[in-house]
């Protein structure tokens, strides 16, 4: 077994499952929002009312968390594929950890910012 | 005359690898690529490549033929050229080149060793042999035929980037061969060894392995079965 401390779920299976479940959540969210925008053509008041609904807020936070987890697993995979000692030499660990830290900070910011927008 | 372009590299004399252009008289026959290599070697004995059985059983002569991995002994010129006029031969991609078309298979075999490619059974051995029903034996079809030629693993980008951590399609096909064997009792231990982000889950299902396997096997399907076994045991 290969050990890793930076992947999301600590096991390959959990990352794989999170990736698939989050993809389903995001697909459902995109289909729902597309339907609302294309079929209902809401004005500002209807759009605002939709996002003040508790169910919509729960759905939006779920989508927000799903995109953060999905993106983290994807970016982590990219960083461990390409930013390695094999491809970049000795500086790879510092570069990889920096990339992962920046990615995590950006995703965390998006989640907090998104929640703030939903409840503002 | 057939035009052949061959990857050449002798670390003792060459600064870097180069492609050598050679012309070979095939007598108008649709020879196997290995036959062409033998004709090249007759012209230039310094040419190095592996070969043994010349009938697709030993897996020695895996190489990159006109951009696609395959066994030189069972790939005909017409199949390799696909209407083109130049045969292009390179070593298997992703592994260190020892000389010309000969690669260092160490990383590939290391991954194979990791999956413990032997039956593990702690129960007392029966007097004659451990029996299997025809149905149990049938589950090994499409798995036991792997000859470890490395064509699949060296066609896999995930193996190129992480040959030290991703087991690769060949090793995982073999792993499933032992996971599904009714005579093996180490299923839980085998699965526990695979549940990390690299060993199995670096497979993104692009199926290069299926596309190149000279024996027509399907490592992606076997990897899917391993994922399902992990899912069943962990949820």
TrEMBL record, chain A:
One of its GO terms (molecular function) is metal ion binding. It holds the Pfam family Sdh_cyt. It is found in: Cell inner membrane. The keyword Amino-acid biosynthesis does not apply. Pathway: Carbohydrate metabolism; tricarboxylic acid cycle. Its cofactor is heme. Keywords: Cell inner membrane, Cell membrane, Electron transport, Heme, Iron, Membrane, Metal-binding, Transmembrane, Transmembrane helix, Transport, Tricarboxylic acid cycle. Heme binds at residue 70. It is a multi-pass membrane protein. GO terms for biological process: cytochrome complex assembly; tricarboxylic acid cycle. PANTHER family: SUCCINATE DEHYDROGENASE HYDROPHOBIC MEMBRANE ANCHOR SUBUNIT (PTHR38689:SF1). Membrane-anchoring subunit of succinate dehydrogenase (SDH). This is Succinate dehydrogenase hydrophobic membrane anchor subunit.
From TrEMBL, chain B:
Pathway: Carbohydrate metabolism; tricarboxylic acid cycle; fumarate from succinate (bacterial route): step 1/1. It holds the Pfam family Fer2_3. PANTHER family: SUCCINATE DEHYDROGENASE [UBIQUINONE] IRON-SULFUR SUBUNIT, MITOCHONDRIAL, SUCCINATE DEHYDROGENASE IRON-SULFUR PROTEIN. Its EC number is 1.3.5.1. GO terms for biological process: respiratory electron transport chain; tricarboxylic acid cycle. Two distinct, membrane-bound, FAD-containing enzymes are responsible for the catalysis of fumarate and succinate interconversion; the fumarate reductase is used in anaerobic growth, and the succinate dehydrogenase is used in aerobic growth. Belongs to the succinate dehydrogenase/fumarate reductase iron-sulfur protein family. SUPFAM superfamilies: 2Fe-2S ferredoxin-like, alpha-helical ferredoxin. It comes from Dasania phycosphaerae. Keywords: 2Fe-2S, 3Fe-4S, 4Fe-4S, Electron transport, Iron, Iron-sulfur, Metal-binding, Oxidoreductase, Transport, Tricarboxylic acid cycle. Residues 136-166 form the 4Fe-4S ferredoxin-type domain. Its cofactor is [4Fe-4S] cluster; [3Fe-4S] cluster; [2Fe-2S] cluster. It catalyses: a quinone + succinate = fumarate + a quinol. InterPro entries: 2Fe-2S_ferredoxin-like_sf, 4Fe4S_Fe-S-bd, 4Fe4S_Fe_S_CS, Beta-grasp_dom_sf, Helical_ferredxn, SDH/FRD_Iron-Sulfur, Succ_DH/fum_Rdtase_Fe-S, Succ_DH/fum_Rdtase_N. This is Succinate dehydrogenase iron-sulfur subunit. GO terms for molecular function: 2 iron, 2 sulfur cluster binding; 3 iron, 4 sulfur cluster binding; 4 iron, 4 sulfur cluster binding; electron transfer activity; metal ion binding; succinate dehydrogenase (quinone) activity.
